[in-house]
Amino acid sequence: MPEGHTIHRAARKHAELLGGAAVSAESPQGRFTDGAREIDGQVLQRVDAHGKHLLYRFPDDLTLHVHLGLFGRFLTHRGAPPEPRGAIRLRLSGPDGTIDLRGPTACELMDPPEVEALLARLGPDPLRADADPERAWNRISRSTRPIGALVMDQSVLAGVGNVYRAEALLVQGIHPERPGREVTPAEFDALWGTLTRMLQDGVRAGRIITVSAEDAGMPRSRIPRGERTYVYRQSTCRRCGGPVRDWQMDGRRAWACPTCQS
DNA sequence: AAGAATGTTATGTA
DNA sequence: CTACATAACATTCT
Q: In Å, what is the separation between the CA of A256 and the C1' of B2?
C-alpha cells in the first residue's frame, strides 16, 4: 500500500488530528505494550515523514518510529474511538480523534542516536524541502547497478516504491535495466523532477494517478482504476499502445515499455 | 482459496 | 563492492 506519498499524507493528517495535545496510547493486540506505556499521556509535538518512515516526536527526545512495510495501514476516526476491530498494534487517541495502526513492519521507540542512524541511511526524499538531489546523483552516476534497482534503494532515494519506479522511468524514457552510470545528468534532473511531481500529486490525491489528463482523454479524477498508470500492471503501454514487458527485479515485479524506454 | 501485492532486513552464495 | 537468491514478517484483496 504505501509509497512516500502515503506516509507524508499520514504525517500531515496525524499531526493535525493528534498534535499539540496529550495522547493516550494503547496496544490492544499486545505487540507494542511497552512503547505504548511510555508514550501514553505525552504531548505529540510533531510528526515527521522521511521517505517511507514516520517519526512521532514527543517531549524528552522520545520518538516513535513507524514503518508500514508492504501491508501496514492506518485507520483514522474522528470523534469517539470505536471498538477495536482486528489486529490493532497501536492506537493513539486525542481529544479530536483516534488513529489505529495495523500490520506495520516497524513500530518502536527510538533514542536520538537511533533516529540519527535511521536518517543517515536514507537518501534524499523528493517530498522534503531539505532534499539534496546531488546525493542521489552521486550514487547513481557511479553505479553499474540498474537504475530500476537504484531508484528503489532507500539509501539512494527515499520514498520511491514499485509503482513510482515503473511510472517515472517510463515517462522519462529510461529503461529500468540501464546501468546507473549510463544515465545522463539531464536525464537524472528530469527524473528527479518527475518523481517529485508524481509524489506530490500522490499526496494531494491520496492515491497514485500518473497518467495525465491529456493522455487519458478525460479529467484525471475520472480515470477508471486499472487505467491510472502507464506501465505499472499494464499489458500495453498507455502512452504508445505497444506491448509492456514485465520481469522480476530484486524480487519485485518490474514493468517497462521497450518502445518508449531505452 | 491460493496467490499476489504501493516493503525491508538479514543471510548466504558467487 | 556487486549481483542474485532465499526467507522472514506483516494484511487485504481477488
A: 27
Q: List, chain by chain, residues whose CB lies under 7 Å from nucleic acid strand B.
A: A 1-3, 6, 51-52, 67, 69-71, 105, 152, 154, 161-163, 207-208, 232-233, 251-253
Whole-angstrom Cα distance, residue A50 to residue A91? 22
Mind listing the pLDDT tens digit for each residue in A24-76?
A: 999 998 888 888 999 999 999 999 999 999 999 999 999 999 999 999 999 99
pLDDT in tens, A84-135: 878 899 999 999 999 999 999 999 999 999 999 999 999 999 999 999 999 9
What architecture (CATH level 2) is domain A133-256? Answer: Orthogonal Bundle (1.10)
Q: Among the CATH numbers 3.40.630.30, 1.10.10.10, 3.40.50.300, 3.20.190.10, which is that of A4-120?
A: 3.20.190.10
CA–CA distance, A100 with A91 (Å, rounded to integer): 5
CA distance A96 to A70: 29
Q: How far apart are CA A165 and CA A190, in angstroms?
A: 14
Q: Label residue A5 exposed, middle or buried (CB < 10 Å: 0-12, 13-18, 19+).
A: buried
Number of residues that make up chain A: 262
Q: Where are chain A's structural domains?
A: 4-120, 133-256
Q: Which residue, among A114, A122, A27, has the nearest Cα to A62 in the 3D structure? A: A114
Place of cell 499520514: A10
